[in-house]
Amino acid sequence: MTPKQMEIAGVAFFWFLSGSMVISALWIMLPHLTKNTDSCTTKVCMVVSVAFVYAQSIMNWYLCSRKTPSKALSTTEGDDHVGWTYCALCMLQAPPRSYHCRICNLCVLKREHHCYFTASCIGFFNQRYFIILVFYLSLGCGYFMSLVLQYYISTGAPWSAFVLPIASYQYLSNMLPTGTFLLLVQFNIVAMIGSVCMAYFAWQMVVVYRGQTSYEATRGITRYRADPTANFTSVFGAWWLLNFLFPTSFAQEGDGSHWKTAKNIKGN
């Protein structure tokens, strides 16, 4: 597959998985789990929680895919271009911590990696949205799995059915209905995706705390480290915790082109 085809497949998979999770939760599991509940508050809270997590995922996916991580680079060197390097592919001067993405065909400010599920590079201006996206995807996957578990406990289905090969055998032997089997397949896929998202979120928080990118962390580059508060502010803005509730653009520290080194920071 070409990179463009992989992007199309990744975006389609994101929308299919997230949409199918919401449909299964709202139209299959929640009605079944709340059918004997008289409390309207409980029903509303469960529906709102699903809607909130889904909305956060969609909004941060959109911002992550639309918020460009790059800026126009300079064609000449100057006093404020110390440490910049020439990119032969862009034929422009690129600032420190920027790297050329052959898929996007441009130099990305503080490039983290290329994400096929958002069809964009993750860099200085959209890393916050990527981190919050994988956070809510992890949360959504965990919540979905808990609903599936509650659903199966209430139906008295055997626990062995959660093992996909066993579920496949039971389905082919007409021991499981089609809808139940598809829900079990979905459960296993969501479990894998949720685990990957949790790992991504944990790793991203580690590199943000350290003031690094994944490239710098794997190569032991520490020259841009600052104190943890400054590192988080650089990515999320001054009110960085609010980003996890409201997907808005709080002003970041810096412009993504000029960076203080650890030596400069210690000297201040």
Structural topology:
Blueprint: H1 3-33, H2 40-66, E1 85-87, E2 92-94, E3 99-101, E4 106-108, E5 113-115, E6 120-122, H3 127-155, H4 164-172, H5 178-210, H6 214-218, H7 228-236, H8 262-267
Antiparallel strand pairs: 1-2, 3-4, 5-6
Helix pairs in contact: 1-2, 1-3, 2-3, 3-5, 4-5
Subcellular location: Membrane
EC number: 2.3.1.225
Main location: membrane
What overall geometry do the principal axes of the alpha carbons give? elongated
Helical residue percent band: 55-70%
Q: Which structural class do the helices and strands define? A: mainly alpha
Distance between the termini: 50 Å
Rounded Rg: 22 Å
Largest sheet: 2 strands, antiparallel
* Total discrete domains: 1
Beta-strand fraction estimate = 5-15%
Strands, count: 6
Helix-strand pattern: HHEEEEEEHHHHHH
Uncertain runs are none
Strand arrangement, major sheet: 1-2
